[in-house]
Specification:
- This protein is α+β, with helices and mostly antiparallel strands.
- Among the domains are: 86 residues, no CATH class; 53 residues, no CATH class.
- The protein is 42% helix and 19% strand.
- The protein has 12 helices and 12 strands.
- It has a 10-stranded mixed beta sheet with strand order 3-2-1-4-5-10-9-8-6-7, with helices on both faces.
- α11 crosses α12.
- The relative contact order is 0.13.
Length: 386
């Protein structure tokens, strides 16, 4: 075998160990008082996830630098996922703290959404809007299909994270139609400095000031607006059952869209809730990276919600590492090492992901930096004129 071939073989052997060592060092510095076996196994899982890009435990185990039976590694990870003392909130707290410290007292935009995880579960996620994507903040897995997550679960999850953002001058919460329920809206209205914009089904009823109760779609049909236009109804009563007062309903018919979008918020028309709502789609990039474009979360065989919560913890930690590294690359003006110079083709996640694997390839993981920063702007995607 010639020398280049020997070097390639040596790299295959050494690189997983180096990735593990760097991740273990990082996590050990964050969890100084935690049991060493949990920190060690978490670092091993994160290593296998980065190198294997798949959430099934045996796939993760394939890339773990332990010279023992593959089934033994897999069972070790199964025990970690079932460990009741392996608390998701406690282990993710350092990453949330880093986000909040970087954000300071600026506006926080929290996005709510659900995604499928395995054959029988869904994960409801609270995420922080961040440069066209999101940073995961908190999540909860529930058994059931689409529409199963109740308003109480949504409220409890937001209540859990509310303390982390108490110093922000404003918190904006965005969500699809399943979040436009009385339980969640009433909770958000009770939080000083919190606002929300939720999509709403057009068969819900409202009563604009001085008018009668009718379906939101009926008022939309009477408005006469055309594609590209917006209509606001301020100070409405929302839903005939709950009659929540002082809300704004917005009808936005986007150019090229077949149907208008209906939104409910506690903002005024001057705050342009329909424009703020556009950030809600940012969470889809996170789910894409967690699923079909990345770690295949939908293909896990786990069915116990608490076990999936711990699996998502590993994914969330890797996501923060990647987005933090992508941020560092942007702040250092080094994106040309990964992306084109005449246009931006890659998301922040892909910038960090590809740079991470370049660092791994060239044994330069000592250059890995994790930074969260809101004071820079990604260039818009596509061709950039000189």
């Amino acid at each position: 075998m010639n020398l280049p071939a020997l070097m390639t073989v040596a790299s295959v052997i050494v690189m997983p160990q180096l990735v593990y060592m760097h991740l273990h060092s990082l996590l050990d510095s964050l969890y100084e008082e935690e049991a060493s076996h949990r920190v060690n196994n978490l670092a091993l899982m994160a290593t296998g996830l980065i190198l294997g890009r798949h959430v099934q435990l045996w796939e993760i185990a394939l890339h773990v630098p332990l010279d023992i039976q593959l089934t033994s590694i897999t069972r070790r990870f199964e025990r970690l996922m079932a460990d009741e003392d392996f608390e998701v909130k406690r282990f993710f707290a350092p990453f949330v703290s880093a986000m909040v410290v970087s954000l300071g007292n600026e506006q926080a935009c929290l996005i709510l959404d659900c995604t499928q995880a395995g054959p029988k579960c869904r994960v409801v996620m609270v995420a922080l809007a961040y440069h066209g994507t999101v940073l995961p903040v908190a999540w909860r897995t529930v058994t059931g299909g689409k529409g199963h997550v109740t308003g109480q679960i949504q409220r409890d999850l937001l209540k859990e994270v509310s303390g982390s953002f108490r110093h922000c001058r404003q918190v904006l919460v965005l969500g699809d139609a399943e979040y436009s329920n009385e339980t969640l809206i009433s909770f958000l209205r009770s939080q000083p400095g919190w606002s929300f914009v939720f999509r709403v089904q057009d068969n819900y009823h409202m009563q604009p000031q001085g008018r009668h109760w009718d379906a939101i779609a009926w008022y939309g049909s009477q408005s006469g607006i055309q594609p590209g236009q917006v209509q606001h109804w301020p100070d409405v009563l929302y839903t005939k059952t709950h009659q929540l007062s002082g809300l704004t309903v917005t009808m936005h018919w986007g150019e090229g869209e077949a149907d208008p979008l209906y939104l409910v918020s506690n903002l005024s028309a001057a705050d342009t809730p329909h424009l703020l709502y556009e950030m809600r789609a940012w969470i889809e990039t996170l789910f894409g990276n967690h699923k079909s474009r990345g770690f295949q979360l939908q293909r896990t065989q786990m069915e116990i919600p608490s076990h999936i919560d711990r699996l998502v913890l590993v994914i969330a930690i890797v996501t923060c590492v990647v987005l933090g590294l992508g941020t560092h690359l942007c702040l250092s003006n080094l994106t040309h090492l990964i992306d084109r110079t005449d246009r931006r083709d890659l998301s922040l996640f892909q910038l960090g992901w590809r740079w991470l694997h370049r660092l791994i390839t060239f044994n330069r993981l000592h250059e890995l930096r994790i930074v969260f920063r809101w004071t820079f702007a990604l260039p818009p995607p596509g061709y950039q004129t000189a």
